[in-house]
Amino acid sequence: MKSQNIVKIVALIIGLIALFFLVRILMIGDDAIAGVADNQGIVSSYIMLALVVLVLAAVVTLLFTLKNLFSDPAQLKKALMFLGIFAAVIALAFVLSSGEEVPLEDGKVLSVADSRWIGTGIRTFYILVIGAAGAMLFSGIKKMIS
């Protein structure tokens, strides 16, 4: 059996379970759900189903991505190269960041290390945005020239 067929069958089963919970919630009605604490089980079961679907989707995506990466050495090399570039961007942002203790509103103090990591995240975001904008600009200019 192909993996696509398995995924379709699992998706159909999850869809039927979700439809069952949806019908139960619709039969109870909005007022009953908002007013009665006993119906929390119905809503929480629907939320639990959503979490299970999210985890399954993430796991299936990760497995197929890894399978495709390891089956093609050229794609694996390219992925590792971009992973190295991403690590270099984070390292550059970490070097550019400085940390200082910051008093918070609740009376606690943000440590120097936490402050530096927050700065690293912000600088990483800015570097990636500038890189993406530069790549789009370069691609647009290249298309206009050719």
Short summary:
The chain has helices spanning 3-28, 30-35, 40-71, 73-96, 112-145; strands at 102-103, 109-110.
Order of helices and strands: HHHHEEH
Q: Please, what is the average pLDDT?
A: 84
Supply the number of helical segments.
5
Strand content: under 5%
Q: Using DSSP, what is the number of strands? A: 2
Q: Radius of gyration in whole Å, from Cα?
A: 24 Å
List the helices and strands and how they pair.
Layout: H1 3-28, H2 30-35, H3 40-71, H4 73-96, E1 102-103, E2 109-110, H5 112-145
Antiparallel strand pairs: 1-2
Helix pairs in contact: 1-3, 3-4, 4-5
Structure description:
This protein has 146 residues and is mainly α. It has helices at residues 3-28, 30-35, 40-71, 73-96, 112-145, and strands at 102-103, 109-110. It has a two-stranded antiparallel sheet. α3 crosses α4 and α4 (73-96) crosses α5 (112-145). The mean pLDDT is 84.
List the main descriptive attributes of the protein structure presented here.
single chain, mainly alpha, 2 domains
